[in-house]
Design a protein that fits this description.
The protein has 3 domains: 2-103, DNA Primase, Chain A (Alpha-Beta Complex); 110-235, DNA primase DNAg catalytic core, N-terminal domain (Alpha-Beta Complex), CATH 3.90.980; 243-380, Dna Topoisomerase Vi A Subunit, Chain: A, domain 2 (3-Layer(aba) Sandwich), CATH 3.40.1360. It is built from 14 helices and 14 strands. It has helices at residues 5-12, 16-24, 72-80, 89-98, 108-120, 154-164, 168-176, 181-186, 259-267, 281-290, 305-320, 342-348, 350-356, 361-380, and strands at residues 2-3, 52-55, 60-63, 69-70, 102-103, 132-133, 190-195, 205-211, 217-221, 232-235, 253-256, 271-274, 297-299, 325-327. The strands form 4 sheets. A 5-stranded mixed β-sheet has the order 6-10-9-8-7. It has a 4-stranded parallel β-sheet with strand order 12-11-13-14, with helices on both faces. A hairpin with a 5-residue loop joins strand 3 and strand 4. The protein is globular, with a radius of gyration of 24 Å. The protein starts with a strand and ends with a helix.
């Protein structure tokens, strides 16, 4: 595959799990023998009780006995006796060879054109607040944005989707979250390699673009070193996404918190709406009262205090409108079977996620009866 050096470095940094499996026959989901197990200074008995684990989010292996740590670059350096450091030319060249990457020069002309465009639009960018940004519309006095005032971004979203399927690193990121090309297109996900949310930012980001309607979106920064405040950036006010799924043909509609959770349920063939933040609960309830869903609603928000409060409010508001509501962990077993959220459940077991999310009112009612009966029996013991 062809990539510039920046994309290649980011891509390689995500391949530790595959490298362990293919070169060492290690299952990274379980504890394994330390990569320094043969060093008698670190392990006098060869690490007979495996002490090393792999942390997927950081891409780092750590031994809890001797303290050794390896990322993909330091492990390749160990395996091929090369100088350590991702910036070392020989090491980077070897990593590209291992993962069959052909380096291409960056398009500096395009970068300069982008910088020029930013300068021409100077003053149009709202300051980054840590909550949302918007580069097309001045912020109104109450800190929110009018849906009607924001310009249509449909063409931008289409360009981003087209760019996504030309960028292997961005596409691999979404595949690593369990999403197929079909789901990526259904959710209109895209890629912007020069995303710059506010003017004072020196360099643009490489980001996954997740539309919320036709004029708002969330950008997911692909940099693995990005701080929490720069990981997800909302352009325009937080708002639900996937509202078109209220037209479900009578099938259940699942309400989840994050956009990737909605994509995960789409992957297993379920209709889903992302709340886009628990503060959007009232706005979603109002929308559903005006555009009544064709099927029952299943609330499957995060099981933390904000998620529980949003669930309580949504359930009351929807039931007051006469909308049938089921709640995960209250009327039904935990549909994510102990996973943190829908996307985590998809990565653990796609078939189990599909089976645990009923796709008809009759199936929901049957699961509810069984679940309530089990709870009653448990309470009587």
């Amino acid at each position: 595959m062809q990539m510039d050096s920046h994309d290649a470095a980011e891509y390689i940094s995500t391949r530790m799990e595959d490298y362990l499996r293919q070169t060492r026959s290690i299952d990274p989901s379980r504890r394994f023998r330390c990569l320094d197990a043969d060093d008698p200074v670190k392990h006098a008995h060869g690490d007979r009780n495996p002490s090393m684990t792999f942390h997927k989010a950081s891409g780092v292996c750590k031994c809890w006995a001797c303290g050794s740590k390896y990322n993909i670059y330091t492990l390749i350096a160990k395996d091929y006796n090369l100088p350590t450091g991702a910036s070392d030319h020989a090491l980077f060249k070897k990593a590209c060879e291992i993962f069959d990457i052909q380096l291409t020069p960056r398009d500096f002309k395009k970068t300069e054109e982008y910088k020029k465009k930013v300068e021409e639009e100077k003053g149009k960018h709202a300051d980054f607040t840590g909550k949302y940004v918007n580069d097309d519309q001045a912020k109104v006095s109450d800190g929110s944005y009018s849906q009607e005032d924001l310009p249509d971004k449909t063409e931008y979203f289409e360009r981003c989707t087209e760019a996504l399927f030309k960028n292997q690193y961005a596409l691999n990121y979404l595949h690593s979250r369990g999403l197929s090309d079909d789901t990526i297109r259904k959710c209109h996900l895209g890629y912007d390699g020069e995303f710059k949310p506010y003017e004072r930012m020196k360099y643009p980001m490489r980001a996954i673009v997740i539309p919320r309607g036709n004029n708002r979106y969330t950008a997911r920064n692909l940099s693995q070193t990005a701080g929490k405040a720069f990981r997800y950036i909302s352009v325009g006010r937080f708002a639900p996404s996937g509202l078109e799924n209220v037209q479900s043909g009578g099938k259940p509609v699942y309400i989840v918190e994050g956009e990737f959770d909605r994509a995960a349920l789409t992957e297993v063939g379920r209709f889903a709406i992302s709340l886009g933040g628990t503060e959007s609960a009232a706005a979603l309830a109002k929308y559903l009262s005006e555009h009544r869903p064709e099927g029952p609603i299943v609330l499957a928000l995060d099981n933390d205090p904000p998620g529980q409060e949003a669930t309580r409010k949504l359930r009351k508001m929807l039931e007051d409108e006469g909308i049938r509501v089921f709640v995960s962990r209250r009327h039904l077993p935990d549909i994510f079977f102990g996973a943190k959220d829908a996307n985590d459940a998809l990565l653990k077991d796609p078939e189990k996620l599909k089976e645990s999310c009923p796709n008809s009112l009759e199936e929901l009612e049957s699961r509810e009866k069984t679940f309530v009966r089990q709870k009653m029996k448990a309470a009587m013991r």
